[in-house]
Amino acid sequence: MPHVPDEYRAYFDDGRERALQLGNRGPVRFVGEGALHPDIVEAYWRTGFYVFEGLVDTIELDDIVDDFAALRRRLPTHRRSAVDHDGNPAFGTDLEARTVVWGKTLSDPVGSTGASHGRHPIKMAEPTRAADAPDEVIYVLQGTLQCSDAHLRLYGHPDLLGIAAALNGDDFTPFNEGIFIKDPGLGPSVAWHRDGVTHWDSPDWDQGTHGFNMMAQIYGCGPENGVWVVVGSHKQREVDIAGMAERAGSDRLPDAVPLVCAPGDVAIVNRQAIHGSFPNTSTEPRVTLNLGFHRRASVLGAMGSGIHGVVGELDEDRIAKRSEMIGWAIAARRERYPDETSFDYRPLHDRVFEWNESARAEIRDYSVLDLSI
Predict the structure, then answer these.
(1) Contacts by 41-48 with C-beta closer than 8 Å and gap 24+?
(2) Percent of the chain at pLDDT exceeding 70
(3) Distance of CA 1 to CAs 13, 127, 128, 281, Å?
(4) For residues 84 and 77, is the Cβ–Cβ distance under 8 A?
(5) How many CB atoms lie within 10 A of CB 123?
(6) What domains can you pick out in the chain, each with its CATH number?
(7) CA 361, 180, 214, 357: dihedral to nearest 10 degrees?
(8) 157 vs 71, 291, 337, 352, CA distance in Å?
């Protein structure tokens, strides 16, 4: 495994300690008619993230682990391969949307580049990889609700959708879904950035304008392999990430803390918060199932940024079509967990969805309609 310099080890240890003192973690708690407990709401808006402990139970978590193992066999064997590990057509090779993202082992693929509107302004440190490590690895999968039934069912989880409704309103919309893969000793970094692009100069901008991502952890995560968040930065309209790194003298931003999660924990992270991750120099894997959600008011009438999905106006028709994925997810979940009370997604209240092979064909290439702002 790569050597972790002492200064990073001290930073990781200090970050973990500070993260656990923030008071923004615990089980999900609803009050009244679907509202989140006020303590959760306060902690989320104060810090920019919240860790819902044990939200995914062990039965579903085992299902997700098995499904992910099967999905990995369906991925291309190398960047230019059209076949998977069993010689079959690999996932993503016949789709319009970008689905499989490669990066050099332990590298920073996007820092100090023009990628994603140049929102990653600094380069993260790149440790030397082991001599027998592969040159490149897959570290992100996009549009994964069409290739992972377990991810689709998680997307329909009533508590997760309840959180989205409580924070973004009953008419909330989807954003984007994907899986981040940080294999031990291999996984690339994601340079410090903020996700929002379109609304920074809007007169209606506030601390929640660009929505949030939910990050469900299969194996758990910590300082070496997980996402770090600069506490409270979601409240700032303007930030200077490059200046912060220059003052720190490295890529170790002093006000950041890591997500510290056990298997089955789900963190929500405000997309406006400065966040990123270091290359995974640990001995532990990190696999994160991402689910993103927006306020409808932020999306309707906006011009899609093109980072996720195709560029174009986010009008009523596009929002309605993309939101159908919530209906399909609820239907797929109902089939697997028939005794669970399904979430009632208000914009689709009068629609009937049944999960079957016809529905599977219906969601093909759905991510070209991602609502990226």
Answers:
(1) 41/166, 41/167, 44/167, 44/268, 44/270, 45/207, 45/208, 46/232, 47/22, 47/229, 47/231, 47/232, 48/229, 48/230, 48/231, 48/232, 48/233, 48/234, 48/235, 48/269, 48/270, 48/272, 48/273
(2) 99
(3) 19, 10, 10, 7
(4) yes
(5) 16
(6) 6-369 (2.60.120.620)
(7) 10
(8) 21, 11, 10, 17
**pLDDT score of 157:** 98
- pLDDT reported for residue 310: 74
Mean pLDDT of the region 321-347: 98
pTM above 0.90, yes or no: yes
User: Residue 196: which H helix or E strand, with range?
Assistant: none
Report how far residue 248's alpha carbon sits from residue 11's, in angstroms, rounded to the nearest whole number. Answer: 12
What CA–CA distance (Å, rounded) separates 38 from 245? 34
* CA dist 312 → 302, 304, 319, 325 (Å): 9, 5, 12, 19
- Using alpha carbons, list the distances in angstroms from residue 323 to 72, 146, 162, 172, 269: 27, 14, 15, 9, 21
Torsion-angle region of 365 (φ positive above 0: left; ψ -120 to 50: alpha; else: beta)? left
Contact, 362 vs 146, CB < 8 A? no
Nearest by Cα to 286 from 220, 367, 215:
220
* Run of H or E residues at 50: strand 49-52
* Count of CB atoms situated within 10 Å of the CB of 219: 18
Q: Distance between CA atoms of 316 and 352, rounded to whole angstroms?
A: 20
